[in-house]
Structure formats: structure tokens, C-alpha cells
Amino acid sequence: MLTRSFNPPVRTLMGPGPSDVHPRILEALSRPTIGHLDPAFITMMDELKELLQYAFQTRNIMTMPVSAPGSAGMESCFVNLVEPGDKVIVCQNGVFGGRMKENVERSGGFAVMVEDTWGEAINIDKLEDALKDNPDTKIVAMVHAETSTGAQSDVSSLVKLARAHGCLTIVDAVTSLGGTPLKVDEWEIDAIYSGSQKCLSCTPGLSPVSFSERALEKVRNRQTKVQSWFMDLNLVMGYWGTGAKRAYHHTAPINALYALHEALVILQEEGLENAWARHQKNHLALRAGLEAMGLTFIVKEDDRLPQLNAVTIPAGVDDVAVRNRLLNEYNLEIGAGLGALAGKVWRIGLMGHASRAENILLCIGALESVLGDLGADINRGVALPAMQRALAE
Ligand SMILES: *Cc1c(COP(=O)(O)O)cnc(C)c1O
Asked: Regarding beta strands 345-349 and 308-312, do their DSSP bridges make them parallel or antiparallel, or are they unpaired?
């Protein structure tokens, strides 16, 4: 028997990513493949870099997508900036800070962990104590939007503090880019990475990164070669750099880059501030519905991410059964808890193109009917009106 073509079901993606892909982006993917050194392609690459500079709010020349998912963008920042023996303070308040520690150690650095409770923002006083205790620190790393818990941290203040202690900073903006205010130049961030599949509404597999002149200075003055040939910025820039002379480094994922270009054109059309405002408005509507039902958020109000809503699973409710029913009966995907929060929370994403009124309506309606059906102790018949009131405001 011949295997037939794969035709995925049509789902609504309201988890921690990938999020719903905009139809214009899927269409862009199917445009004709051309050579990765074709002059037309190079023009597209230059536009893509400018669009990324807009999304990141930076003039950094070294702003481009790494040809691999967000985790590779993370790795790119660490392997380039961390030299063997470097001390790096990692602020951890969820899963992704733990991965940063791994990256520091695999790059030959020494990680000093500053740990906060999962579900809380990074505590700036703890970072200050760690910087005082470790005056030889070279780099401070932090996650802006902790997708594992739904908490956002005050990157602007944390970076300012790190700079006052003479440190470079690495910031994870995988879930924040395009969804919540982020200003790379104004906040003086040195190295930042994101992902295509969260608030940019693009397909997974690309990681936008940006490096400041201070960061590049450190890379240029390294005593040892970057341990990863593929990630070495000095080599990657031969392909992504400015000027007409582009050298082959690796074959770019041509069509995927069309898709990211389209995603960023859509973001530019909407306007960055408008996109941030839309995420906030839709978060408030989802929150109104969930809270009316009786569900509670794990993150305190001021630190909540609008694009990632972590709520406690009601007592006695079977996590997997609920998520399976949402998927099978409503084609709706919401996220499970990760790491220490596995089985305890659901993570409902309102990222990018998924942050729309009809998705909130579907999620609130489906969740209420499944939970009610399973006999969960929730308030019935009040969530949709609460959500509608919030949307009308
Ligand atoms: C999703 C995510 C990543 C990893 O991105 P991948 O594309 O899955 O490799 C890293 N950091 C944060 C905060 C994320 O949400």
C-alpha cells in the first residue's frame, strides 16, 4: 500500500506555541523557491532584516533570523558571548532559565543561579545581591516572558542594573516579541533571541536574533573560537551581513524566510503598539471569562503575560481528559503545565494571529461545556457574558 499525502486536521492553536499561523503566511510559503544567492532573494533578506529591526525596536546591524527554532537562537547568543571561564548570572523563574544554565555550562562558562518562585517575576533585589557577591560577572541572562508560567519580568530595569555592574545581557524574548512591549535599543539589551511561531504567527523553525555593538566587540575579541561552527556569528555575517558580497554559509530555508517576511509585513501593517494593545485587550476578555467561571490565575495581576494565561486546574479534574476532549470535540489545543507545573495548570495562549475574539469565544465556550460535563465545580452560564462585556469595553 502506498502511503498517502499527509493532511493535518484544522486546529485552533491556543497553547504555548506554535500559535495559529496567519493564512497570508501559509500562502507566502508556497511561493516559488529561488536560489539563496539570487539577487531577488538578497533584496528580500535586506527587507527582512529591516522588518526585524522594527519588531525588536533596534538599529543593531546584526539583526537576522537564525535558520532554526528559538532554542537555536538561545544557543547562538550563549555560544558567541560566553567564553570558557566566564561567570554568567542566570535569573531563573521557570523552565527556560534552566536551559540557559545548560547553555552557559556547555559553552565552558560558570553559571551563578538567581532563583525565583515559578509564577513570579524576576526579583531585582536578588539580582543586585548576586551582582555584589560576584563582581567578576561578565554576563546576566534572563527570560522576558516565561512561557512555562505566564509571568513577565521587568527587563528594562534588570538590564539597567546589569549594565551598571559592567555586564552584558542576554534576553529571551521568544514569547514576548510582537506580543508585549519590548524595546531593545531603549533598554540597552546586548543579545536577544526570539521565535517565529509565537506572537509573530509564523510557522516554527526560525529564530530572530539581534546583537548590540558591545556584544559584537566581545565576539570579535574572543580568545577562543566559538565552539559551534554553524552558530559562529563571524561566519554567519558573511551571508547575512551588509553589502553586495554575500558568501555561502548554509542554504537558507528560502520559503520559511518568505513566511517570516510576510509575518513581519503583517506586524508592520498593524503597527507594533496596536499589536501590543490587541494582546492586552484580548487577555482581559479571556480573563473575564475564566474568572467568572471560577478559574484562578497563578501569576499575580501586575506580572501576567497577556499572551500566555496560566490557570490552576480545578480540584478533581483530569487534566489530560479535558485537553483531549477540547482537541477531539472542538479542534482546540491548549497547553499543559511544564516542569514543576505539569498536571497543575493549563496554559492558554493568545499569541499573534490566535489573539482574536472568535478564539476567546471558542475557548471559553468549549472549556465551560467540557468542565461542566465532567462535573467540575465551576460557575455555569456566566463566563460568556463576562467575556462579551470585556470585549465591548
Ligand atoms: C518556546 C520557547 C523557547 C524555545 O523555542 P523553540 O522554538 O521551541 O526552540 C525558548 N524560550 C521561551 C521563553 C519559549 O517560550
From this structure: antiparallel
Same domain for 281 and 261: no
Q: Where are the beta strands (DSSP E) in 217-288?
A: none
Grid coordinates of 160: 539597567
Residue nearest (by alpha carbon) to ligand 1 atom 6: 70
Q: How far apart, in whole angstroms, are the C-alpha atoms of residue 353 and residue 357?
A: 11
381 burial (CB, 10 Å; 0-12 / 13-18 / 19+) is: exposed
**pLDDT tens digit string along 334-374?**
999 998 899 999 999 999 999 999 999 999 999 999 999 99
> Cα(first)–Cα(last) distance of the chain, in Å?
57
Dist. CA 377 → ligand 1 center (Å)? 34
The strand order across the sheet containing 308-312 reads 12-14, 332-336, 345-349, 308-312
Residue after which a domain boundary falls, among 214, 243, 269? 269
Give domain status of residue 174, yes or no: yes
Average the pLDDT over 317-338 and give the result: 97
CATH code of residue 170: 3.40.640.10
Cα 390 to averaged position of ligand 1 atoms, centre (Å):
30
Task: Kindly tell me if the per-residue pLDDT of 68 is higher than 80.
Answer: yes
Which of 273, 271, 255 minimizes the C-alpha distance to 181?
A: 273
pLDDT tens sequence across 3-26: 999 999 999 999 999 999 999 999
Cell numbers placing 74 = 538561545
Instruction: Give the pTM.
Output: 0.97
Q: Are 204 and 341 in a shared domain?
A: no
- Ligand 1 environment, Cβ below 6 A: 17, 69-71, 74, 96, 143, 147, 172, 174-175, 195, 204
Q: How many domains does the chain have?
A: 2
Single-letter amino acid code for the residue at 115 = E
Crossing angle of helices 272-293 and 254-270, rounded to 10°: 80
For residue 365, give every residue at least 6 positions away whose Cβ sits within 8 Å of its Cβ, in sequence order, or none. 384
